[in-house]
Amino acid sequence: MGTALSQAERARRRQFAIDGRAAAALGVTMETLATSRKTAIENWTSLIRARMDECGAIDPLEILPEILTRLEEHAVGEARAAARAAAREEVQRLLRKVMT
Fold this sequence. Notes:
With 100 residues, the protein is mainly alpha-helical. It folds into two domains: 1-58, no CATH class; 63-100. The protein contains three helices and no strands. The protein starts with 6 loop residues before the first helix and ends with a helix.
């Protein structure tokens, strides 16, 4: 009979599975994902601290709405660019199909 897993072990395994799916979706190894995640965290930390210094903020929550708004704007821009590229490829594919 198997032993019951601790709450912490279940959480660790769940996060491992989530990270594995994220790495697979990005087409990278788990090690590469961990490295890039660590770099991203360092970059975000630097950005937040610099912005807090510029604004004279004490609490990061004071600048969180601004950061999230900029992140959303960037994500929307990237999504629109990807949609345009996909639409362009589809139109070209259809034109090639019509021409042959």
